[in-house]
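Section 5.1 Outputs to date
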Amino acid sequence: MDPSAPRTVGKGVATTSAVCGFLAGVYGALKGHSPVKLSFFSAVNSGIAAATFFSIREYIVGPALTLTHPGKQYQLRRENMKDFVDGISREREMLTWSDIRTSCLLDSAISGAITGGILNTWKRGRAGLVPGLGTGALMCTILQWTVNEFDIFRIAYVSRQTTEFIPATNDTAKRSPIAESSFPSPTHPTSSQPSDGESWKDRVLSVFGRQVSDEVYLKRLKTERDTYLRRIEELEREVHEKPR
């Protein structure tokens, strides 16, 4: 299972509830209905649907595909999970625009179908199973594709902004000194700190992951930084080489 699954589920439920609640409140205000009541019920209902969908995707469908699917993105997931368990960070093959565009599409389609089938069957009985499967798969696939397209836009935007500060070179060792000096230092608690001084929050958070030393943490961050910088350069070259 992906270590970030609990965070993904929580963020997905919170975002879905907030957006649906806000839109329902605006709709209620425009139509002369009680915006608070509509917003509340919409947030609750959408939160239940989102919790079902994200839990199925992150805890069932995603891990199953990661273990069995031969696709590139699932192979990378297996390698990243192995690195996480080993506590190391290796340089991986860079993702292409196509990889980003198709990320989690299969996961979301299957999870959406299961979620739609469950919720529609609960509402309409057995007659709602098949329509729920189809509608859920279609809607979740479209939403996931939209999210992926937004990620591509965000990467392209960050790439354009970064070129103003980081010179595009093929040698990663010749990075701008600004990027090196402005890189944040780790401020998380380490295992060398005495346990008596830990707060209750630190002890609770330690249940979800093991603590590492500052040196290991800094090495991971530097590796991630270099990987992102190299990826930005490749994306810039792809953008410039595309026919206009």
